[in-house]
Write a sequence for this structure.
């Protein structure tokens, strides 16, 4: 990523110039200054030489200054952390791919839900080995088997 446009804007603002004033000094249109600052266009070498003379810098010094400012800006950007491989989202993705997006009991694609083989209420872990996909009917039967019909009746008939 180039920071030349941001740095040009930074140098312009250090002098307290508007885009219009800067454009007049360069003998170009204000919209072109905006395009340089937003990096929609790159200045020709003649324009860079003119910018250098306005800031009383050689072309080499100007480019070094723009690069140095860019490096400072780059160092302030915090790196984005890579996604954890053991995250819940990753576990879900792997499980859905492993089970081919269908119920592991009956093979149905209708109303597929995530299920813990060993329920979390009984200390089951959120791990790939303890997770499976079941359709709604198979999931309800598994819940009745684990928790009993009396306990599940309040959830199924409400």
């Amino acid at each position: 990523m180039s920071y030349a446009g941001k740095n040009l804007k930074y140098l312009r603002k250090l002098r307290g110039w508007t885009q219009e004033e800067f454009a007049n000094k360069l003998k170009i249109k204000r919209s072109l200054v905006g395009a340089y600052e937003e990096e929609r266009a790159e200045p020709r070498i003649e324009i860079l030489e003119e910018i250098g003379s306005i800031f009383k810098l050689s072309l080499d010094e100007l480019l070094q200054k723009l690069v140095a400012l860019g490096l400072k800006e780059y160092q302030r950007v915090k790196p984005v952390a890579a996604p954890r491989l053991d995250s819940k989202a990753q576990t879900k993705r792997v499980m859905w791919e492993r089970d081919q997006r269908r119920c592991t009991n009956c093979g149905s694609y209708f109303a597929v839900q995530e299920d813990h083989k060993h329920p979390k209420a009984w200390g089951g872990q959120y791990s790939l080995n303890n997770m499976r996909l079941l359709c709604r009917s198979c999931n309800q039967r598994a819940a009745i088997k684990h928790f009993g019909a009396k306990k599940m009746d309040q959830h199924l008939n409400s």
DSSP finds eight helices and two strands in the chain.
